[in-house]
Specification:
Blueprint lengths: L12 H10 L7 H13 L10 H10 L4 H17 L1 H4 L7 H9 L1 E2 L2 E5 L5 E7 L6 H21 L7 E6 L5 H5 L3 H14 L4 E7 L3 H10 L5 H4 L2 E3 L26 H14 L1 H6 L17 H5 L12
Parallel strand pairs: 3-4, 4-5, 5-6
Antiparallel strand pairs: 1-3, 2-3
Helix pairs in contact: 2-3, 3-4, 3-7, 4-9, 6-7
InterPro entries: CRAL-TRIO_dom, CRAL-TRIO_dom_sf, CRAL/TRIO_N_dom_sf
Organism: Papilio polytes
Protein name: Alpha tocopherol transfer protein
Length: about 300
């Protein structure tokens, strides 16, 4: 699916070569691997018979071209699409509910370029201190919508993701409205269902409230991910990890303003409106799964026990 706005600068040259090596991608055999995954999909009665090549290739890259790992990720991805309608239905960026968040509540655009080691950077910041419970869920939905666009448009692939969280407007009212169940479902999506290689999370403009938020989220993460969270007292410390020039102007960089980037990504999500609508039916059918159907309560740990999540 090719649309009019290209927001992601694709890596090339030496960076692209390094990415190929890190992802264990052999340009001579990758399409053989893609064909094998497509054939496997066709043989799974509970999964879609066919899907677009580009997302499948992104899943292969995110699985370091391990076919078995890619199969597990895809099965979980389509399972989560069925299990979490709050994230995977009504994904229309022109709807009043989503437009309100995109325009006046929170910004989370991936940046155009990649770091010297081939990682994509996304900056998330609140622009309004208050979100109700439904808006928090819709914000997470939008984050996964951006993730789905990237499944299609990361044509060359990246060596991992870096997230920068600007916590300047994170207030106690937001913390009070966080639902453990919703956060847990989102974490399972990100860590087990998407081909994400989360390398670093950087938190800037921190406060005691932010530290409470991190404490809230940490039980959903494995130890090695906790070690990838960095809290910075000063913005200049971020530049040790992300080149200053590739950041938005608000953070001392040269890639445009956050408002401009957010507007571009809002338009991108609108361009994908029909694609998202077509994806509503692309999900697992548990009634057709061989063996025992997935028990959503067990999957999400509804009994109250935290499920330790796996991540690359």
């Amino acid at each position: 699916m090719k649309l009019k706005t290209d927001l992601l600068v694709q890596p090339s040259g030496e960076i692209s070569k390094k990415i190929r090596e890190e992802l264990k991608e052999d340009v001579n055999t990758r399409y053989k691997d893609l064909a094998a995954i497509k054939e496997w999909l066709r043989k799974q009665p509970h999964l879609p018979d066919d899907w677009e090549d580009m997302p499948l290739l992104t899943f292969l890259r995110g699985s370091s071209f391990s076919l078995e790992k890619c199969k597990r990720k895809l099965d979980m991805y389509f399972t989560m699409r069925a299990a979490c309608p709050e994230f995977f239905s009504n994904r229309d960026a022109t709807s009043p509910e989503l437009r309100e968040i995109l325009k006046g509540k929170l910004q989370g655009p991936p940046l155009p370029g990649v770091t010297p080691n081939g990682r994509r950077v996304t900056i998330c910041r609140g622009v309004h201190p208050s979100l109700d419970g439904q808006q928090i869920t819709d914000t997470l939905k939008l984050a996964l919508m951006v993730g789905d666009v990237r499944l299609v448009e990361e044509v060359q692939g990246v060596a991992g993701d870096i997230y920068v969280l600007d916590a300047a407007v994170l207030g106690p009212s937001l913390l009070a409205r966080l639902s453990p169940t919703v956060i847990k479902k989102f974490m399972i999506c990100v860590q087990e269902a998407y081909p994400v290689k989360l390398k670093e999370v950087h938190i800037i403009n921190t406060s005691p409230i932010v530290e409470r938020f991190i404490t809230f989220v940490k039980p959903f993460l494995k130890e090695k991910i906790r070690k990838r969270i960095f809290i910075h007292k000063e913005l200049k410390d971020l530049y040790k990890y992300v080149p200053q020039e590739m950041l938005p102007e608000e953070y001392g960089g040269q890639c445009g303003t956050m408002d401009e980037l957010q507007d571009q990504w809002t338009q991108k999500l609108i361009e994908y409106r029909e694609w998202f609508k077509a994806q509503d039916s692309v999900k697992a059918n548990e009634s057709l799964r061989p063996g025992k159907p997935t028990n959503y309560d067990e999957l999400f740990g509804i009994d109250g026990s935290f499920r330790q999540l796996a991540i690359d």
